[in-house]
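Lab meeting minutes (informal)
Scribe: AK
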Amino acid sequence: MEFITLNNGVKMPAEGIGTFLLTPDEAETAVLSALKDGARLIDTANAYCNEKAVGRAMKKSGLLREEIFLETKLWPTFYTDADAVDKTLARLDTDYIDLLLIHQPAGDYVAGYRLMEKAYKEGKVRAIGLSNFNEEQIKEILSICEVKPTILQTEVHPYAQQKKLKAFLAENGMVIQAWYPLGHADKGLLEEPLFTRLAAKYGKSNVQIILRWHIQAGNVVIPGSKNPAHIHDNFDVFDFALTDAEMQEITTLNKDKRYYEVTEDKLAAFATMFPPVDDQK
């Protein structure tokens, strides 16, 4: 595993497993599988309704809590709840969260950020950050924050490399974390001739080439899967390195193509949606 250091000195694995769209049973099995394969970063969220399952998998893994980097996200309808972080901790069955994010720039996200700052100061959270925020929204948080955000989780892949946003984040001491790191499994992206050529050269798969590109580009990556073989292969990317020329070749694939667009209507809906967090297995 390789690591990045956040702006508050906390070390974070460069790759982990995402649990978006996984049922509790799927999440528990996938996280256990990933931890056995060397993963130490787990990403979940209030809205995924599988936090309890993630907590169970962590316990069942036999690993010490401090060996695992646990990341989760607060949902907009909980931003103004004084006990939102404590309830999240209870669902995860843990005393602290390594990285807590504001999930969406919807509702009273400033109140949500204040809630995270308080939890950080109380030692319940080791680092805080943002998810799905654009540059202007990040600037707003930077202008009012007492504890600086460490990371932005957003859509990043070879077709949407987010160069301008990454430069802005770097100027402000923030790291980018990629969801949809494989472009929502777009066949056109996964079967790019460049990746096929590099996969043949290194004895890897096209997916492994893409994940290796992310890591060398400084992107923290959280591919999601419930397939044990895929999970294993996703973490088998630390025994080779792409050359500078190959990294530059991949740069030319950028199309600023996103597979998910945040609209005002979606954000308005998020601000009134209550995930059934208390009903999860």
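Next up, CB showed the second protein from the same session:
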Amino acid sequence: MLNRRNFLTAAVGVAATAGLAACAKEDGNSGGSSSGGDKKITLGFSQVGSESGWRSANTDSVKSAAKEAGFKLQFSDAQQKQENQISAIRSFIAQKVDVIAFSPVVVTGWDAVLKEAQAAKIPVVLTDRSVESDESLFVTLVGSDFTDEGRRAAKILEKVLEKAGHKGKVKIAQLEGTTGAAPAIERAKGFKEVMDAEHKDDWEIVVSQTGDFTRAGGKQVMAAFLQSNPDINVLYAHNDDMGLGAIQAIEAAGKKPGKDILIVTVDGVKDGFIAMSEGKINAIVECNPLLGPQLMDVVKKVQAGEKVERWIKTEESDFMQDQAKDALPTRKY
């Protein structure tokens, strides 16, 4: 997988890709809707799907930012299937769009189609998620540091446990994101880094399984967790939607979410904040979905042949239960 920590050091690949975009503009092979003159930039964007509130907010951000920028947006929903995304990218290549952007369903299996885009002299931008691929095949990543989100989740759990006055063994259930997806891999990795370094004697992940980033998946898997491990006292969910589904399963089992089982999630969508204001989620690590303006800025720079950083990060915060009501009115997603 692309190492996000070292992302900014790969300047040579950026310059080469930016130069490729400039050459494409000069020889007229970049696409039917060139950025020159009075013609609109055409952006082909392939979205993962609509699996969560975060993803819906991300889609809205991309669409509204493209409209504001005056771009022609060719949008495709992959419905969480990699084959749909690859097909969409090939369609964008056939349409000769100016730039392709996509949020990869999983990290592997992209080399062939990215090489096709490169051969067609169409620059590619990753949004939200990284890939395991030759870095020369794409310009940049616009998104979050998922490994750091996992670390932050572990650190904020320390505060949650202290505030709850928890004593004794911490038995953690982990609801993972989609298998093979960058946020699932990296959020688990970051959390375990802190756990192994600072809590190897008192914290244990007793059960861990994918809920596929969906509310229904979170509910179903958490119900199974409670059957096999009724003494779970902490839930770490890789996104709010799985955590919200898990709350339903916890309540159905006669337990109190946020008290009998302490809950830490990642994302920061409005429904998550509502649950936190009700005392059902104890803490949320924010992952900002509003990537649209940053993406459009990158597209403009690529079309102008300007240098672009290898990783354009989003700004994020962490929230405890007592901050929920104050923060809720300002939630944009």
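CB comment: Residues 146-164 form the longest helix (19 residues).
No objections, moving on.
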